Amino acid sequence: MNALEKSLRIIPFAKPRLLRLSRAYGQYVWDEAGRKYLDCHTGHGAAFLGHRNPKVVESIKHQMDVIMTATPAFQTDIADEVLSKLSRILPSGMGYVYFLNSGSEAVELAMKIARKVTGRKRFVAFRNSFHGRTMGALSVTWNPRYREGYEPFPWETRFIPYNDADAVTSAVDESVAAVLLEPVQGEGGLTPATQGFARALAEACEGAGAFLIVDEVQAGFGRTGRVWAHEHLNIKPDILVAGKSIGGGFPVSMVAVRSSIGERLREAEHGSTHGGNPLALAAVSGGIDVLIGDSVPSKSSLLGEKLSAELKKVVERCTHAARGVKGMGLMLGIELRFSPEEVIRELQTKGLLCLKAGATVLRLLPPYLINDEDIRLCSELIEEVLSSWKPEKGGSGA
Ligand SMILES: Cc1ncc(COP(=O)(O)O)c(C=O)c1O
């Protein structure tokens, strides 16, 4: 029976893609008719290491035969293993981590920690930011479409322009608990932070005693050409938040804090039944093996350059529909002259899955496994759709 004919339905928060996925492997997914799609949607970027990456699958399968349920109150071998592997990739000075299940939950904990440790109640975030949809995370998420009807939020947030060093200097004062930064804005439109802005932000935080929370949920774990996207900016987070791809597509997220912050946190100040579940930790362990063993950051950098170069050529030939290429590494987008929704739908019918960012950006979050042939196919299909684009097809001209 088709799920839509049943009386029980999933709340339609997500616009239906009208595509039934039956199988996925690597950079591809297949529909029920056996048709193959190049996946640049990857579950909002979660399958960046490729669908069912064998190292991740093997690690989870092994863990299932050992222990599947244990909270952080108990010691386990898998927790020791993950801590040891993570300590090799986290920024220096990070002395504590806590595992959760989603990016929003991790942002929520980062904010709770900033609130508790600084004793302050105000946050600063950026226009076009996206940090999730739980109430704390939503309070620092900019898009009014997600916020409407949910006020009041637990904490007051001031939204200032991204990449504006002067705005940062005047907004970050001694009443601010933390500033939340996406090193590359994902959902908001694939805008990378500039070095000058990031430096000014780090200095303003240090001067005011506010924490710098770097949200690497979308940009982190090798996608931009470095393990962490903030490494491009020469800044050091006080609190780092990661999620999406760290478990190779398995639901797991993480908050890492500087030692001096972690030392101030006490028993019962937070907790989560499934946070740090052994299967999730096994997924992270396998994920780190892939990240390091397969040189994911340098592959992302190289493949990102190739894909970006091809997309730029498409834009040059389709200036009636496209304005330019945005993003970095394998976090790329084409700025269109209209809403990308119809383009996304047409690309799906041609065998390419992608998603939207901001109001007018066609977003591509491919796995690091894409090859030259995939890159060629991706740019050819996008060109096919954009070159025949007529304004009357949909999307308001901008
Ligand atoms: C930068 C960033 N932070 C937080 C989140 C929220 O993550 P989740 O959807 O896993 O709750 C997202 C999700 O897209 C994100 O891109």
UniProtKB/TrEMBL annotation:
InterPro entries: Aminotrans_3, Aminotrans_3_PPA_site, Class-III_PLP-dep_AT, LysJ, PyrdxlP-dep_Trfase, PyrdxlP-dep_Trfase_major, PyrdxlP-dep_Trfase_small. GO terms for cellular component: cytoplasm. It is an enzyme of class 2 (transferase). CDD domains: OAT_like. Pathway: Amino-acid biosynthesis; L-arginine biosynthesis; Amino-acid biosynthesis; L-lysine biosynthesis via AAA pathway; L-lysine from L-alpha-aminoadipate (Thermus route): step 4/5. It is found in: Cytoplasm. One of its GO terms (molecular function) is pyridoxal phosphate binding. The modification N6-(pyridoxal phosphate)lysine is found at K244. Pyridoxal 5'-phosphate binds at F130, D215, E216, V217, Q218, T273. Keywords: Amino-acid biosynthesis, Aminotransferase, Arginine biosynthesis, Cytoplasm, Lysine biosynthesis, Pyridoxal phosphate, Transferase. Binds 1 pyridoxal phosphate per subunit. One of its GO terms (biological process) is lysine biosynthetic process via aminoadipic acid. The keyword Cell membrane does not apply. Its cofactor is pyridoxal 5'-phosphate. The keyword Amino-acid biosynthesis applies. HAMAP family: LysJ_aminotrans_3. Homodimer. Involved in both the arginine and lysine biosynthetic pathways. This is Putative [LysW]-aminoadipate semialdehyde/glutamate semialdehyde transaminase.
